[in-house]
Amino acid sequence: TQPAISQRVREFESNIGVRMFKRQGRGVELTIEGRELVPKAGPLLGRLEDLAVSMQPDCNAYGLIRIGIGNISMSWFPKLVERLRALMPNLSFEVDVDHRGMLLEKLDTRKLDVVVVAGPIDAERCSMISLGYDRMLWVTSPQALEKAGTTDLGELFRKMPVWCVPRASFYTRIAIAHLAKFDVVPYKIDVMNNMAAQMEMIVQGGGIGLLSHTLIKRALKDGTLVELPGEAQPTDPLHFCIAYAKENPH
Q1: With 90 as the cut, is the pLDDT of residue 224 above it?
Q2: Cα separation of 248 and 245, whole Å?
Q3: DSSP alpha helices (H): ranges in 123-233?
Q4: At what angle do helices 195-203 and 213-222 cross, to 10 degrees?
Q5: Which residue(s) pair with 117 in the sheet?
Q6: How crowded is residue 131: how many other Cβ atoms within 10 Å of its Cβ?
């Protein structure tokens, strides 16, 4: 109430020996000393608030979390959000779907709070928590394979359209290095910046694609996509992690 606020102000001014407010018409405004104190008190109040929040259960956390994810992550991201909502129902989410390079750049410039990315992370650049591993598979549709009329891998890669994500992505570097074994030149690779859309392209008979096993496992199970023979597959799994700025204590 107003009387209680006035009493607290008087106590505060008495304790520090400085007048903080002065009357101006029907209201009040900060004195010169008051204006000097406010910016100094801001960081202290912020630290006190952080301390209070850190002592509360996770369920009391609130605010907006800006999360960056890649196309692959969309296959399991809804379950992650569902779990986060169960643990912290007062959080809101702003989700940015982009490729790895842009997500890390947005993390560097603090446009995102956390990002879910695949591939190696520079430990000097940010902190990370491992989420596990996935495989990338060369796949095509049964009808496209039948139309090609061959099971020779080199012939398949040279004869059919080969789709990848943008050339700046490390996925594409994996693909180019692997295709070199079959004498496929980089300029023969077609590019699509959305892996989910790329999957649909391959399902519809559009060629061969290097896609995440997690993303396509349902299509593999129902037979709308098939793996190329084992010797066509890259051997190294993809490491997924959550990355966040080093100075972020959470």
Answers
A1: yes
A2: 6
A3: 142-148, 153-159, 170-179, 195-203, 213-222
A4: 20
A5: 241
A6: 16
